[in-house]
Write a structure and sequence with these properties.
Blueprint lengths: L2 H4 L9 H9 L1 H13 L22 H22 L1 H15 L4 E4 L4 H14 L2 H4 L7 H14 L2 E8 L7 E6 L17 E3 L2 E3 L5 E9 L5 E9 L3 E5 L17 H23 E5 L13 H10 L16 E4 L18 H15 L4 H5 L7 H41 L14 H4 L2 E4 L8 H13 L5 H7 L4 H17 L7 H11 L17
Parallel strand pairs: 9-10
Antiparallel strand pairs: 1-11, 2-3, 2-8, 4-5, 5-6, 6-7
């Protein structure tokens, strides 16, 4: 520890007057420092002994991130491959952010155009139509985008046009590793290139420099400059001076790693305790079996020799009986220690790791043994806000941009009848009006929540549109489906036309159905 940390009166934060006083009267200088701290200093800024090693970096976001960006990404990918704790977090995002996908609603005033646009989007979302490689559907690509954003910090989506009569617009997904961070620092036009991204005078990305890599991972060091309007660079910016991604698992990686190491150690200790069955010990020269002479002399000489490799005991399994060499002894090793505290330690670590990612412990670990309805509902609501943030980012930065390209390409290829909408380019913003509805969250107690929604509808504090949206559905489609089912049931004779209304009226007036009976003027009570 430095002298400055041990003796605050000689720290670098002292002015010339304090230094002079400290030289001649250290006690007075110390008192001045204590009074100064008491008048409004922050403990977080103290330079005392307990915080002597707390010296974080200060600088722009990019200057700090680029130091360890690649290392953290590699560690996050290792946790993705090998850690069940990390995968508990990642799978929670995968289940709840994308899930069944996003429901598109075209929002123009022309219902015919809306249906045509929604149909075009459904067909384009198939693997052979949206993915440049033809391997993933849009939903599957969104799942990959979500996971890569959590692990790598971001992902690169390249908008591409190919020779296809129906669906010429496709997307190519590329990893952030393809951004040439070690290349040029200045473009031909004088713009600054920051870690593979060309920025203009306002620090707005104008181009990305992407490395070309073959499927086997080999690169010929060829770099392609791609205009920014062709790139959807999906990542989360936390500081104005950040221009590249950072793994979202970064804040919890140390805790995940420590917990995995701890569990591996405890597991190994239990294996040792369960493996050793019996040790038979032989000692020399006491208790030598047999006669004396050359036989004993040979054994005594052999005791000082190294044990041959084929006779060394380097491991054992359950039920082994080990015979040791002459002169050897063994002591049973029964590991003890923190094994009894494993559950509490692991639960605490998992809880903190999940909280660092904005999730509840139950969502990341699937352990609901310590919750009731109220706590489960509260955790679900908080988790929903976390997922909603990612869902809105996907809608704003990915889905909406892809939808606009799909509709414009469909108009050019004739998938949307250009003769019906000759003013498409003049009123393009109106024709591109739309809304994406993410999947709804599940119910904890269906009866309680259904009753709450029923009360909301009846009291007019909840609209059917908002209710359908909360469940990831289109309210118009729901009403149309209900009407179609009602009509078919009437046609098949399953219900009489207007029967449900009569049943509702009966329920309102029948005491046995929970209603109030009408006043009978001829009753005894009168």
């Amino acid at each position: 520890m430095s002298n400055n940390a041990r003796n605050p009166t000689t720290g670098n934060d002292l002015n010339i007057i304090d230094r002079t006083i400290a030289f001649f009267a250290p006690q007075k200088a110390w008192e001045r420092m204590q009074y100064r701290r008491a008048l409004g200093g922050y403990k977080a800024g103290d330079q005392n002994a307990s915080r002597a090693n707390w010296q974080p970096m200060i600088g722009t976001g990019e200057s700090i991130n680029k130091v360890s960006r690649d290392r953290m990404r590699a560690r996050a990918r290792d946790a993705e491959r090998n850690s069940d704790i990390a995968n508990g977090i990642l799978l929670a995002y995968q289940r709840n952010v994308v899930g069944r996908g996003f429901n598109l609603q075209a929002r123009t005033e022309d219902d015919t155009f809306n249906k045509a646009a929604e149909k075009l989007w459904r067909h384009w979302s198939k693997p052979e139509n949206c993915d440049l490689t033809g391997q993933q559907s849009l939903r599957e690509m969104l799942n990959m985008i979500t996971q890569r954003t959590q692990v790598d910090g971001g992902i690169v989506i390249v908008k591409t046009y190919v020779q296809d009569k129906k669906y010429p617009f496709k997307v190519q997904i590329r990893e952030v590793d393809d951004i040439d961070a070690m290349g040029r620092m200045e473009a031909d036009n004088g713009n600054v290139i920051c870690n593979g991204i060309e920025l203009d005078q306002y620090n707005r990305p104008v181009a990305y420099y992407l490395k070309e890599t073959d499927p086997n991972g080999f690169s010929d060091y060829k770099v392609t400059r791609v205009e920014a309007d062709r790139i959807i660079y999906f990542w989360q910016r936390r500081r104005p001076t950040e221009y590249r991604e950072i793994s979202r698992l970064a804040r919890t990686l140390p805790r995940i790693r420590d917990t995995d190491d701890y569990l591996d150690t405890v597991s190994f200790a239990h294996k040792i305790a369960a493996s050793l069955a019996l040790v038979i010990t032989q000692k020399f020269p006491d208790g030598i079996a047999g006669g004396i002479g050359r036989k004993v002399q040979g054994l005594l000489e052999k005791m000082g020799e190294p044990i041959p490799e084929d006779q060394k005991i380097q491991g054992f399994t359950g039920g082994d009986i080990l015979y040791l060499q002459p002169g050897q002894d063994a002591t049973s090793v029964v590991p003890t220690g923190a094994a009894a505290e494993t559950k509490d330690f692991t639960t605490t670590q998992q809880r903190l790791a999940a909280a660092g990612q904005g999730l509840s412990h139950e969502s990341a670990s699937r352990d609901v043994s310590e919750v009731n309805y109220s706590s489960a509902r509260q955790n679900l609501l908080e988790d929903e806000k976390t997922y909603l943030d990612m869902q809105m980012s996907l809608i704003e930065h990915v889905l909406s941009k892809l939808y606009e390209e799909v509709i414009k390409a469909g108009y050019q290829t004739g998938m949307i009848d250009a003769q019906k909408y000759p003013d498409f380019w003049e009123r393009m913003e109106e024709y591109l009006e739309h809304e994406f509805i993410p999947q709804g969250m599940p119910w904890i107690d269906p009866l309680k929540e259904a009753n709450a929604k029923k009360i909301g509808i009846e009291s007019k504090t909840l609209t059917r549109k908002a209710l359908a949206a909360s469940e990831g559905k289109d309210w118009k489609e729901e009403l149309e489906q209900l009407a179609a089912e009602q009509k078919m049931m009437e046609e098949l004779g399953l219900i009489v036309k207007g029967e449900d209304k009569n049943a509702q009226s009966k329920q309102d007036t029948d005491p046995e159905a929970g209603g109030q009976s009408p006043k009978n003027e001829g009753s005894v009570a009168d």
